[in-house]
Design a protein that fits this description.
transducer, Rhopdopsin 7-helix transmembrane proteins, 12 helices, OR51/52/56-like, mainly alpha, olfactory receptor activity, single chain
Length: 301
């Protein structure tokens, strides 16, 4: 359905989505290229940032086919198996992003609380192992979802309220017993978002304690400033998730457009904002961008 209740102004909505996709894809590709080519960024923090950018590209590309076909070409159909594949990748990339944000918070914890051991603790091999571990956890957690959905009969219609396939939306049109799907879905959310957010809060509590133990106010501000980009990225990711969950649990009578709008914010805003946040708040990223656009001119003979 795209956005329920909005039949007019689809051209403007299509334009907005195209702008969001363009910013997300170009921004995250730029971060990846910058980290790859700039030797000064070959550090654990920026390797994790490149993982985040790569994952955000996955989120954008997962939703792109059906969103563009719905709003740009007015084609509102998707095959059932294709819908299951899209659902799997959307949720997998979302769970992976949560894990990457946790890894980035641990990176900041080691950098601030134990800086002398930073290079020995966060080696390249360990960063690679962490990334593979996060991806494996997300993939294995989401692997049963398509099979749990495929076993269900669908007799309440075949209309989804979003312009992409999500597990809760599919459950609304499924018949039969969906308790297993709901229970496993709750387990998956707690195992990923719940565990990750708890450890992110714990790491920042320890970081704050370490920072407050520093006597110099200038050093305190300097240490906290290194965390600002990550804090903004965490808020951009978790605030929409909390809003979607709150509306789903406590405002069931909300118009469908509210649920759809919040889901769009949850899927489209973080991939768009993350490159902007790190470009604005991280000095090394800014320096790399300026270096790229202001290359030294060759000396005249």
């Amino acid at each position: 359905m795209g956005i329920p209740g909005i039949q007019k102004g689809l051209t403007w909505i299509a334009l907005i989505f195209c702008i969001l996709y363009t910013i997300s894809i170009v921004g995250n590709l730029s971060i990846l290229a910058l980290v790859f080519w700039e030797a000064a960024l070959h550090q654990p923090m920026y390797y994790l940032l490149s993982m985040l950018a790569l994952n955000d590209l996955g989120v954008s590309l997962s939703t792109l086919p059906t969103v563009i076909s719905t709003f740009c070409f007015n084609y509102n159909h998707v095959g059932f198996n294709a819908c299951l594949v899209q659902m799997f990748f959307i949720h997998t990339f979302s769970f992976t992003e949560s894990g990457i944000l946790l890894a980035m918070s641990l990176d900041r914890f080691v950098a601030i609380c134990d800086p002398l051991r930073y290079a020995t603790v966060l080696t390249h091999n360990r960063i690679l192992a962490v990334g593979l571990g996060i991806l494996t956890r997300s993939f294995s957690t989401l692997f049963p979802f398509p099979f749990l959905v495929k076993r269900l009969p669908f007799c309440k219609g075949n209309v989804l309220h979003h312009s992409y396939c999500l597990h809760p939306d599919l459950m609304k049109v499924a018949c039969g017993d969906i308790h297993v799907n709901n229970i496993y879905g709750l387990f998956a959310v707690i195992f990923t978002y719940g565990v990750d957010s708890t450890f992110i809060l714990l790491s920042y509590a320890l970081i704050l304690r370490a920072v407050l133990a520093v006597i110099s106010r200038e050093q305190q501000l300097k240490a906290l400033n290194t965390c600002m980009s990550h804090i903004c990225a965490v808020l951009a990711f978790y605030v929409p998730i909390i809003a979607v969950s709150t509306i789903h649990r406590f405002w069931k009578s909300a118009p469908p457009v509210v649920h759809v709008t919040m889901s769009n914010v949850y899927l489209f805003v973080p991939p768009m904002l993350n490159p902007i946040i790190y470009s604005v708040k991280t000095k090394a990223i800014r320096r790399g961008i300026l270096k790229f656009f202001h290359k030294p001119r060759p000396e005249e003979g």
